[in-house]
Amino acid sequence: MTKTVLYARVSTADQTLDHQRDQAEAAGFKIDKVVADDGVSGVSTRLADRPQGKRLYDLLAPGDTLVVRWVDRLGRDYRDVSDSIRHFMRDGVVIKTVINGMTFDGSTTDPIQQAVRDALIAFMAATAEAQAMATKEAQRAGIAAAKGDPRTYRGRKPSYTRAQFNKVVTMLNAGEGASVISAETGLTRQSILRIRTDRAGSEKALALWGL
C-alpha cells in the first residue's frame, strides 16, 4: 500500500514542524507519516547524512509520495538537492512541493517532458543554493555590524520585522500578490515589492540592524 510522507527540516526558531505539516494539509495533502530533522543545516549537512533524512532512503518505496514544503527542505546545495530528487525518482517515488505545487515524477518516458522536468529540477536546486548563499552573506554582515565594524554601513532601518519578512517570503513563494500580502502583514505594497525585487538585500538589511 502506497503512502505519503512529509519530510520537514527545522533549522531556525522561525520555523516549526507543526507549521510545515499544517501548510501541507491545507494544500490538500493527506499525510501518512512525518519524518523531521530539527536544528539541522541544509547547507552543511547532506540529506543522506541527516539523522532522519537518511531514513527516507529506506522508508520510501515505489509508488510512494514524498512531500516537502519546498526543495530547500531537502538541501541548500545544488548537487545535493538535484541528486536527492533524481535518486527518489529512479526509485519510483513522486516528489511534490507544498509551495508552488511542483511535481517531480520519474515515470514519464516522453523526452520533451523529461527535458522540461530536468531543467526545472536544475533551476529550483540552483535557487535553493542561491538563497542559502544570500542568507549566509546577510548573517556575516549582521555579525560585523554587531561587532561595530566601521566598514559596515547599515543604511536605513527596515520598515518590517523578521517575522513580517518571513511571512512575505512565504506568501510570495505561494504566488500571492502584493495587495493580498499587504492586507495580511500590514506592510505597504512598496515594502513588499522591494522585498520581492531584492530578497537577499532585504534580508541583509535585517541582519545589519540585528533584527
Description:
The chain is an alpha/beta fold. The chain has helices at 17-26, 56-59, 78-90, 111-146, 162-173, 178-185, 189-197, 199-208, and strands spanning 4-10, 33-38, 65-68, 94-97, 103-104. It is built from 8 helices and 5 strands. A 5-stranded mixed beta sheet has the order 2-1-3-4-5, with helices on both faces. The longest helix has 36 residues, at 111-146.
Radius of gyration: 18 Å
The total of helices stands at: 8
Relative strand content: 5-15%
Spatial separation of the terminal alpha carbons: 47 Å
Structural class: alpha/beta
Note the main sheet.
5 strands, mixed
Question: Any low-confidence stretches, pLDDT <50, length ≥5?
Answer: none
Give the helix level as a range of percent: 40-55%
Note the overall shape.
globular
- The largest sheet has its strands arranged as 2-1-3-4-5
Tally of extended strands? Answer: 5
Order of helices and strands: EHEHEHEEHHHHH
Overall pLDDT metric? 83
Element layout with pairings:
Blueprint: E1 4-10, H1 17-26, E2 33-38, H2 56-59, E3 65-68, H3 78-90, E4 94-97, E5 103-104, H4 111-146, H5 162-173, H6 178-185, H7 189-197, H8 199-208
Parallel strand pairs: 1-2, 1-3, 3-4
Antiparallel strand pairs: 4-5
